[in-house]
Write a structure and sequence with these properties.
The structure is a single chain. By secondary structure, this protein is an alpha/beta fold. 28% of the residues lie in helices and 29% in strands. It is built from 9 helices and 20 strands. Strands 11-10-9-14-15-19-16 form a 7-stranded mixed beta sheet, with helices on one face. The chain has a 3-stranded antiparallel beta sheet with strand order 1-4-3. The chain has a two-stranded antiparallel sheet with strand order 2-5. Strand 17 and strand 18 form a beta hairpin. The radius of gyration is 26 Å and the shape is globular.
């Protein structure tokens, strides 16, 4: 494995006996390439400059793993992971949950509060649309979108399909949630329903959508991906910001891990990378208690 070192750094490492390199090349720019590098961290040096030693060892290991296409990242503090888990506590309201879309993949638990909902928006269709079909059969207009397929897998007079991904921009392949909703020229009065499974683009979509538009949805059913990234600095910030934005107007009434992925142990907690979450707008219920029984 080769490591690129600036001259000053290289000479310091040699003088302090931190490395021994049997094969060294120096390029015209003054950059040294050290091959087959061995770290010789003597006890006195480890005690005198522990941070420097740890930094060098960390960089060395990152170089080795990067050569094979891997990356290692330090976990964020345990408290930050717990902050995320605290956001996921569902409640039980006086509105019962019903299953829409069958018992297999594509079926979801939602509050039995569909009266007055004028449209469903469902980005991320792929090959299954049993949820959308059942909603359409209830007389609710169902808008589907997915650039990866050419047509809706289910046909109904109340189902309309757009060949687009949903995200944070508008171009040939993508459109924002706001652009999509506005293009349907819906009545200004009437709540909406959102069912979203867009393979990781849910974060940018939610964060780029205005609160006023999010608040028009009475029920949200969202499949969240890559939740194990809550252990990283960037992932923790992105995931917590997304949930915090939603929880200002909604409460979680159901949560279910997707069986496609095994949980990952992070700071002693089992984190499922992919979970399905049902949100219920706060003004639609009066009573709530922490959920203790999970279907």
């Amino acid at each position: 494995i080769d490591i690129l070192l600036e001259p000053a750094t290289f000479l310091w490492l040699i003088e302090e006996s931190i490395i021994w390199a049997p094969k060294i090349k120096q390029y015209p720019e003054g950059i040294f390439v050290v091959s087959n590098c061995f770290i010789l961290a003597f006890e006195h040096l480890r005690l005198e400059k522990p941070k420097l030693i740890r930094a060098f060892v960390s960089d060395y290991l990152m170089s080795v793993l990067g050569h094979f296409g891997f990356r290692v990242e330090r976990f964020v503090d345990k408290s930050k992971v717990q902050d995320f888990l605290d956001q996921l506590r569902p409640i039980t309201t006086e509105v019962e949950l019903i299953r829409i879309g069958g018992n297999d993949d594509g079926g979801y638990l939602i509050p039995n509060d569909l009266g007055g909902i004028i449209a469903l928006f469902s980005p991320g269709v792929a090959e299954t649309a049993t949820f959308e079909l059942e909603i359409a059969q209830k007389g609710i207009k169902s808008y589907l979108a997915d650039y990866s397929v050419d047509n809706s897998p289910s046909e109904h007079e109340y189902i309309e399909f757009d060949k687009k991904f949903i995200g944070s921009r508008n171009d040939d392949q993508f459109m924002t949630l706001a652009e999509w909703v506005n293009s349907k020229q819906l009545p200004e009065v009437g709540d909406l329903l959102l069912q979203m499974d867009i393979e990781g683009s849910e974060y940018e979509t939610i964060l780029s959508t205005a609160n006023d538009l999010l608040g028009r949805f009475r029920i949200l059913v969202i499949e969240f991906h890559f939740l194990d990234k809550v252990s990283t600095y960037f992932g923790n910030k992105l995931i917590i910001e997304t949930f915090s934005k939603l929880l200002t107007q909604f409460k979680i009434v159901h949560i279910h891990p997707n069986n496609c992925c095994a949980p990952i142990l992070i700071h002693g907690k089992r984190i499922h990378p992919c979970i399905e979450v049902t949100f219920f707008r706060r003004d639609r219920f009066e009573k709530s208690n922490p959920t203790t029984n999970f279907p």
